[in-house]
Structure formats: C-alpha cells, structure tokens
Known about the structure:
The chain crosses the membrane at residues 241-267. By secondary structure, the protein is an alpha+beta fold.
Amino acid sequence: MMTCLSVPCEEISWDTTVKLAKNMSLECVYPLADSVTQIEWFKIKMERESVAIFNPMFRGIIREAYTDRVYFSNQTAASNDMTLTFYNASEADVGFYSCFLHTFPFGTWEKVIRVVPSDSFEDAGPPNSQMVSEPGENVTLTCQPKEKCLLEEMSWEKIQPQQIDVLISCNLSHGRSYTSKYPRQILSNCSRGMKKAFVTIPNVTGSDSGLYRCGFKASTGEKETFVMRLTVTDGETNTQYILFVASGAGVLLLLVILITTITVIAYKRRRRQQQRGPFKDFWITQNRAANNYRNTFPASPPSDGAGEDIYVNHPTFSRVPRARV
C-alpha cells in the first residue's frame, strides 16, 4: 500500500496498519535466519525521528521523548522479534513508524507500520466464503472480480481485530509488485492481464486462521473486495466441532418432534370438537322439545264431577282420557 507523505508527493509504502489504542504493539519480526546486529525504530515525519535502538551486545535505549511510554517486548539477544509496545498512547502517536534492521550477512531490512485512529480503522465485514483445513496442508485462496475489466491493481491482506497485514500488493499497469514483510512465506500471482488472483499459504498452522481480503482496482476506477475466512483445526478440535454439530442436530430434531406432536394433538382435539358440535346441538333441541311437551299439561287439572271422564285438549292428541276421579 502506498500514500504521499509530503508535497511534492513522496510515496511511502506500509506493511501493516495498526488501530490506535491506549496500549498497542507495533509488531516487527525478522523472518529470515541470519543474525540481527542492530535494530532502530523511527517515527517517519518530514524527517525520521529516532524512537528506540537495540543492540544485542549493548541492549536497548529509549529516546527521551518516548521514555516511560515505549519498551521492547522481547530483549533476548538471540531473538528476531523486535516488537515495540506503547502504553498510554494518544492521538499524537498516530503516523508512520519504521522498524529498521541491520543483519549479517544480508544487510538492511525495513518494515513500515501505519498507526491510524480507531474510527479510521477499516473492518473486514462479513466473509464471502469459508475454508477449513488441517495443519500441514498447503492452502490456496482464490478470488475473481465480477466485472470483466482490465485490472490495474491487486492486493491480499490478512485482517485481525487490531491490525491489517499486507501480504502482497501489485500495480499491474506498471508491472510492479510489492511483497510485504509479513513474517510468513506467502506465494501469489502478480502479472499483467491476470483475470483472477490467488495466494498460497504452505504448511498451514493454527496461527494462519483468520480473515483474508482480496482487493481489485479496475482500469475504470471501480474497486471490488472479497473476504474469506480460513480455519485451521487439529484432530481434537475437529472432533469437538463434529460432536458439537451432532448434539446441536439432535436437540433440533427433538424440538421438531415435540412441535409436531403438539400440533397433531391440537388438530385431533379440534376435529373431535367439530364432530361433537352438530350432535350436541341436536341433543339440546330434542331436550327442549321434550320439555315443551311436558309443560303443555296443567299442573292441577280441573275436575267436572265424580265418575266422569275428563279430557284434555292437546295439539297432538285430540282427546286423551284421564283416569276417573
């Protein structure tokens, strides 16, 4: 990645973007096996400002302006890890930093880190695809732009919560590529006229898990990005994952069976109520008719005299003889 540091434009490329935090670390790990003879940290302004210096023989020195604010995370003489840690960092610490190493026998090596305010740190967003791998495999991540345009720029990045590492950046129109100082061997394609991009991570380990972002810029100026999640698992983790998925599927199956049973019982109960409804109405109607029939007879029928038949008018039976009195 590149930007202008001054006017006229002085291009500067950076390898890592770090989110400003009260306590933050600027990671600098030399990936090769040769000896580090001296390392110096600079803040890059119009001129370079020395922050700290470390020599395996004479140990480290923190410059006065940064005393009690920064320290080397690892001061082991044989270590290639020269990470610089800030505490009580502030907005004044935003900017570009250089981790500049002198090595033997290969000479100098530099990594540039950009510190940005937290609201300017770009989140990866949800992944477009996922891949699961076992340790030791060679993993290849591939992406292809949707638009069929001539590509001008291409890049791969690894996204972490507090930092973004550039893996490779290509300026295809000028035929230039920039391989970052990421402490891991990465293989990628970078050629003029390419239609898709890939990055290969050989012999993956658990530390390679995370989000990877592929970015394109077309000659028309349009930009596209794709985010992929890589998960590197071991046998134990994989077994736990399978057991977790299986137990989750079992619980889901029991839940479906329970819901289905409740639904069937409720449906059958509703059907029985619907079938009893007409019969119940008929029974009520018959009871009412019988009651009406009984109520048509007087409670105390009149007597017309001893030994005579008494007849009662009824709508159904015209003359009904009663017992003699």
